Amino acid sequence: MTGGPPPSAHQVWDDAPAVDWTDAFLTGNGEYGLMVPGDPHAERLVVNHHRFVLPNGTHDARAPHLAALLPRIRELVLTGRRAEAGELLTGGRDLAWTQSYHPGFALTVDAPATPVRDYRRHTDFTTGEVVVRWSGRRRRSFVSRADRLVVTHLDQGDCVVGATGDLPGRPDTVHYDTTAHRHDGLVFLRVRGRYPDVGGAYGFEAVTLVRGDAEPAGDRVLVRGPALLTTAVERTATAAWPTAAQQRRLADGPADYPTLLARHVTRHTGPYRRVDLDLAVSAADRDLPVGALLARQTTAGDRLDPALLERLFHAGRYLLFSASGVLPPRLTGIWTGSWDAAWAGDFTTDANLNLQLAGANVGALPEVTAAHARLVRAQVGHWRDNAHAVYGARGLLAPSRTDGEHGHLFHVHPHWPFTAWLAGAHWLLHPLYEHHQVTGEPLGEVAGWLAEVADFFTDVLTDVDGQPALVPSYSPETGPLDDAGRPVPVAVNATMDVAAARHAMAVAAEVTGSQRWAAVRDRLPGYRVDARGALAEWAWPGYRPDDDHRHVSHLYPVWPTGEIDPDDTPELAAAAHRALTVRGDEDGSAHGTLHRALVAARLGDGPLVGTYLRRIVAADMFFRSLMSAHNPGRVTYNADAAHTLPAVLIEALVQARPGLLRLLPALPPGLPRGTLRGVTCRGRLTVDELSWDDGRVTARLVAATGQRIRVRSPYGDTGCDLPAGTPVRVTHRR
């Protein structure tokens, strides 16, 4: 038995087991997630499922009916009584939360304690396999995309396999039942979780087939020698447990680990390896254990460690793909080991979800965008209900958060009046529109949804003293300061809402061929630049900004829409850059910092991108699996940094828009050479390979359709004809 794989940027390894669930190594298939702490003698493999949410009474919650109150709400906003308007925008409701995401259970593997030598656990990003080795023994696990199973092979001698729901924070209202039994000559371990009866799912069941020399013993299984565990997991809406169907599925499946792994790898490895980043890191650095890699960055001062950045790039793509399938990633991806997930572990849509998706289209992971499309498709009818209930309007009004069960807008509070957040549907549809730009695939139903967004803005736009305005309007999750210096969220013409309206109407005309929005778009509010020369967060006079805030929603026309661009709108681009530099850092949250980094990349400021990256990588924000935290010091398990960081690096190295490809538009300091492969760009253009060294940049480009573009880099600007499907090489030298 070898000690481990050769040095590679496509793995992470540790020389000790996890001391807490947050440091467990991760694998997933977009539906199930598995967390592997790696304890040799008392393993606890936490099994997650994307749809495990704890019923709390909000399963049937609906948006408040506010349309009749709009004249009064608008009057209050316009007369400076914005806090009162915020109260009305709740519909008189208390703050209610989505159903909280929770862990399923832990598969337990217990064995007598023996001396541990040569310990190593590693995750292979290319296969999704997590392997734990010690003293000549081994456990291997992965979650199969091909067979929808959690798979674990035990090669550790005699042990006892069981299941437990005793995980941190489990509420007393959730009851577990575990049994082991023999059926048709096979040994099964079954665990059931029963939810409280408050509306929502009934519970969930997992069945594990134990193949090998195994014998039921009460509620556990005695195993002698090697064994294969395959686990199927289902949520159920009724008391009709799916045990028989799950047992049949397991019994009929492959009976050996190599076959199961090979079937999975055919669906995992190809998508993961489409994009690669090589930052000229040495083999010795690539072989560092994760603890040493993370520790080295904390002592590197202002220098970015290429070895860590390279590893985080690949880990981020691996985790993003592994967490995306039936749904896009949650706040925690698809993993949690505790029942007290922050912000209910849901899909927080006013920033976090889209930031996590930022690297999907350009990073050649259409599977991730397809998962997002499934979430949207299941909820777009609810967005119509929201628009009608809140505004009496046509079109789509999206909520700020969802647990994946529905898209009704009910999470409202005077301090978070998301009934006034008008941009949500446009924001959530933008990745689907970008997918069309990158791949050329027909928009299909997305075109109609984009038109509905334009219709919504047409209906909610109002006149104020003869000028068009969006009232009420909201810039998540802040507001103009009142006389006491406190942010009051409800306002007029939040820049994010204005930008979404402008873009929505332009795109709707493009994808439908209709000009019915042209007159309205010509009347939309323009952007404002404040006395400091910064792009204002509200296109309305007299507002004072909350500059020490983590969100930068007012930079929406820079990223993601690209309406403000240094080439086309240099004055507004300068104002947007000024808005970045005057914004405080608040709590150092990952999503706030990386949102800034994406904007800085679009504005062509490599040193500023580097500053933001350092705030993330040098702030102790990554766990041993390279999953990230929401805040410095590994506070709050959260996927924002892990999933978004690859997108920042791609945007810093490659940007494209129709007719123009930018190479190294915002290269951070400290990355003097490297190679990026496989990036997919708007305009159906693939940067098959980009390499750079001191004073030279070379790219191999492949276009799906014949086109002429300009290729721009720090060292040149070249017109280039790209025949369809034919690689073309471009080189610029200083």
UniProtKB/TrEMBL annotation:
Residues 13-155 form the Glycosyl hydrolase family 95 N-terminal domain. Gene3D superfamilies: 1.50.10.10. Residues 655-714 form the Alpha fucosidase A-like C-terminal domain. Residues 257-653 form the Glycosyl hydrolase family 95 catalytic domain. Keywords: Hydrolase. GO terms for molecular function: hydrolase activity. This is Glycoside hydrolase N-terminal domain-containing protein. It comes from Micromonospora humidisoli.
